[in-house]
Write a structure and sequence with these properties.
Layout (H helix, E strand, L loop, with lengths): L1 H26 L14 E7 L3 E15 L2 E4 L5 E6 L8 E2 L4 E5 L2 H37 L11 H26 L2 E3 L4 E6 L6 E2 L6 E5 L2 E8 L1 H4 L20 E8 L2 E16 L6 E8 L17 E18 L8 E5 L5 E5 L1 E5 L3 E6 L6 E3 L12 E5 L16 H9 L3
Parallel strand pairs: 1-21
Antiparallel strand pairs: 1-20, 2-11, 2-15, 3-10, 4-6, 4-9, 5-8, 6-7, 8-10, 11-14, 12-13, 12-15, 13-14, 15-19, 16-17, 16-20, 18-19
Length: about 425
Amino acid sequence: MIGKLLKWILPLVVLLAALAGGRYIISQRPEAPQFNPPVVPVAIDAIRVQPVDYRVVVRSEGTVEPRTESTLIPQVSGKIVEISPSFREGGFFAAGDLLVRLDPRDYQLAIASAEAQVAQAESALEQEIAQAKVVENDWRMLGKEAPELGLRKPQIAAARAALLSAQAQLERARVDLQRTQIRAPYEGQVLEKNVDIGQFVSPGTVLARVYATDFVEIRLPLSSRQLEFVDLPERFRDDTTGGSEGPAVRLKASLGRETWAWEGRIVRAEGAIDTRSRQLFVVAQVDNPYRRGVGDRPPLRIGQFVEAEIDGRVLPGAYVIPRGALRDGDGVLVIDAESRLQRRQVEVAWTDGENAVIVAGLAPGEVVNVTPLAVATDGTLVSATIDGVPPAPRERPGEGGPPGDRVAAQERPQ
C-alpha cells in the first residue's frame, strides 16, 4: 500500500520541484535593454522666402509680318527697257528709286502730238478774239452796240473749250510718260519679282511685291489669363490723347545653333477676340529690323517665327518659389522651427515654366520645401538644406547633446 502511494507521490513531487525551479530561473533572468529605433529625418532641399517686387513676363509667339506690303502694277503699257540692280528678290531700295523703266517713245510722240493740238487751239482762239475785236470796232464806228453773235462770243467759248481739251490731252500724255518710270513708293525690300527686261507689260500686270522696312509687326495671341497682367495701349473712340505707350517686348529666334534677340514694343491690340481660340491678338512693332545689330545678328526677316516675352505688371511683395514646389496647385510644404513639414494653402497669382508667384499665405523668412516628395504628411521630420547650405550637425534631430536628448528626439512621434 505504501509502495503504491510512493509510486504516485514521487513523480508529483518531482514535477512540482521542476515547476518551482523553472519559475525561480525565470524570475532571476537578466533584464533585456530597451531600444527604440532612431527616427531618420528625410533629407530635402528648401529655400527661405522673402517678399520681392516681381515683374510678370508673359510669353507668346508669332510670325514676322511687314508693316506695309504693296503690289507694283504699271498704269501704262510698254516694253521693259531698264530695271534697277536692286530690283530682285531681297534687294533694298529707297523711297523714289527707279525700279523699272518702260519704253517711253510712244508717250514722247503722244506729247508732241498733244503740244501741236494745243498750239492749234491757241491759234484758233486768237483768231476768234481778233475777229470779234474787228466787228466791235465796226459797230462802234456806226455808233451802235454790237450784238453778241456779232462779237463771236459763242465761237470764242468753243475755241477756249477746245484749248482746254488740248491742254488736258497734253497733261495726260506727260503723266503717261512719267508712268513709264515705276518708282519705289517707300523705303523697302523686294519680296517677289515677276518680270524682267525685254518683257512687254500692260496695266494689270504684276511686276513685283514689295514691303516697307522701316519697321515690322508680329501678331501675338494672348489668353484672358495673360491679358490680366499686360497693360495694353487701349484706344477708345473719344480718346484724344492717342492712347498710352505699350509694354516692351523681347523677341527671340533660333537660327541653327544660335539664338538671337530683338527689342520691340506692343503698339496696339486688335479690335476683336478670335472666336476659335478665344484669344486676343496684340501687335508688337520692331523698328529698323534690317539695321546691323550687335555682333553678327541677322536681320529680322518676313515670315520668321519668333518667341516673345512681354513685360507684364509688377506684383509687389510677392514670394517667388520654383513651380515644382507647389502641391495640388495651391499648397506648399513649410518647415517649422522643429524641422517638421506643415502643409500650407497659399494664393498663387502667376505661374510660368519655372516659377510660381505667391501673393498670400506665406510670411517673410519662412522655409519652403522644394524637393518633390511622393508622400508627405504633416509632422514629417526633415533635414533641410536651405538655400544650398546643409544643416549643421548640432541642428540635425537625434544628433548632438546628451544621450537623453537624442532619445527624446528619436521617440518623438511623427
